[in-house]
Amino acid sequence: MEKAAKSTHLDPELSRRLHRALTCGKEELFEALLDPAMEVLRAALRNPALDDNHLLALLGRRDLTEELLKAVAAHDLVAGSHRLTVALVHNPGTPATISLPLLPRLYLFELDTITKLPGTTPDQRLAAERTIIQRLPATPLGNRITLARRATAPVLDALMKEGDVRVVEPCLANPRLKEASVFQLVSAGRTSADAIAAVARHPRWGNRPNLKTAMLRNPSTPASLFTTLLAAAPVMELRNLSASGRLGQERKRLIQEELRRRGC
Questions:
Q1: Residue 212: CB atoms within 10 Å
Q2: pTM surpassing 0.90?
Q3: Which domain of life is it from (predicted)?
């Protein structure tokens, strides 16, 4: 019984820190926000001197509990502050129930940063990527080009599908780009000749067999590129091409000439 009675008494040192966190001035409050005890940090959230800068410093910590982060998210200062919203979403401890609804409030490149932040959950990454993709139709060309240089694979896939060679070229240089996205581009009949040519001359993509075959089968491939690819294509591929319903008579004639040249 005596032990239980003692446990109900607040530790004097903790009591002093709680009082300090609740009543201290602006400068001292920054020190209080370094306290390891979550109850002290909760007390600091009720300090009348608390402002945006204090909350930014607090959200920079990576040891905050989910409950404390929920309390920060509910604070009046967060609702009207873009930089606090960003800091809250960037904190890996913020639960998805809080961070996901905040994503539409972030700017394009803030969302892109989230997709690559250590500690970002798969759900948060996917939601950020989806939000970026939804904004692409209204995104200025310059921002799409910048995004092409730094985005993750799902966003690059969406950018490639647009087919704009000015965006395609930086996408091709992005190490996160997947071959499947390039294959879809060079296979699509609506893809421009310029975009196909950009793939063909790129050192990373131009020599891949699957992409070469797709370019040969695409009627949008420039004539000069078609002829170059034809000369290096295997005989079996030439025979398959000659039966393709996508190619016009002139290209089929070139295929037959190439077969005759090889004595086939």
A1: 21
A2: no
A3: Bacteria
